[in-house]
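Morning - KG4 inputs below, output right after.
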Amino acid sequence: MLILGLETSCDETAAAVVADGRRILSNVVATQFELHAQYGGVVPEIAARRHLENILPVTQAALDQAGITLADLDGLAVTQGPGLIGALVIGMAVGKALAYTLKKPLAGVHHLQAHIAAIFLTDSPPAFPFVGLVVSGGHTNLYHVKSFQDMELMSRTRDDAAGEAFDKVAKVMGLGYPGGVVIEALATQGRPEAYPLPRPRIPEEPLTFSFSGLKTAVAYLVKRHPEILAEPHSRADLAASFQEAVVECLVSRAWLALEATGSTRLLVAGGVAANGRLRQALKEQAQATGMELFLPPLHLCTDNAAMVAALGYQLLKQGERLPLSADVFSRG
Ligand code: KG4
Ligand code: ZN
C-alpha cells in the first residue's frame, strides 16, 4: 500500500511516500525558517502563502523521488490539526482534491499523534501500550498510547510548550530562531549548574508541564544582569542552565507517567526530541531504571510528512475515512 502524506501545520511544507506504513520511499521537507527568522517566530499569514507556493512542487518531488506517479497511490493522508488554520487548509485542500480526483481514500491525521507514529518508520518500534511524550514548538503532551487509534492524553503544558520556551529564551538572549538548535549549540560550551533556574511544577497536578516561569526567570536574569549576554562564557552557561532545567522537567514527568501507567516503554518525539542533551539524559535515566527507550532519528523528530503517511496508513487500514466535508482544527 503506497500512501502519500502531506504536512502543512506550521512552517514546513512536506510531502512523503511511505509503503505499508513502514518503509519511506521519499520524504521531502521545504522549511521556511529563513523566511520567519527575521521576525523571530512563525508569521501565520506568511507561512500560509509560502505553503501555497511550495505544496505542488514538494508533492511532485516526493512522487519523483519515490519513482511513482499519482496513479500508483493507494491512499492519501493529510494533517488535519492542530496547527495554524491558514497553513493547514493548504495541505487539506490538496489532499481532498487529489483523493477526489484519483478516487482514493483519504485519512485526516492528528499532528501530535503523527509525531508518535514516526517511531514506526524505524527498524524496532515499541510494542503497545507505551508512554509517548511529544515535545514540539506548540505542544508538550504525554500520551498513554494503546494503539494507533487509541492515544489517551495524560497531561499537557498549562502555559508554554517546551519548544516555545526554547524559542522565546533564544529571542530574549538575542540568539535568533529557531531557538532549540541555537541554544543547544551554545549550551555545549556552558555549565548546566552555573545558574540556579526554577523547575516549575504544580503540586496538585504532578504530570502537568509548565515552562513560562522558567522563561520569565531567564528574562529577569538578563534584564538585571545584561553583562551575562555580553560575555561568551556566561552566555553559554545561561544557555546550558536553561536547557538543563527543561530537560529535567521533561524527564521527571515522563518517568512519573511510566509509574502511573505501569508501562516499561517510553517514546519521546517532536522537534525538541532532536535535542542532544535531552536524548542523553533520557538514555541515562532509562538505563538506570531498566526502561526501554525509543527515540526517532533526528530527521523524523522535526516536522515531516512521512510520519503523517505512517499514521494515515494505519487509520485507513482500520477503515477510517475523512469525509470531504471535514474541516481542519487549530487546537487539540
Ligand atoms: O515538532 P516541530 O518540528 O514543529 C512543531 O510541530 O512545533 O518542533 C519545533 C520546535 C521548535 O520550538 C524548535 O525550537 C524545537 O522544536 N527544536 C529544538 C531542537 N530542534 C528543534 N529544541 C531543542 N533542541 C533542538 N535541537
Ligand atoms: Zn510538529
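Note: Residues 128-295 form a domain with the Nucleotidyltransferase; domain 5 fold (CATH 3.30.420.40).

O.
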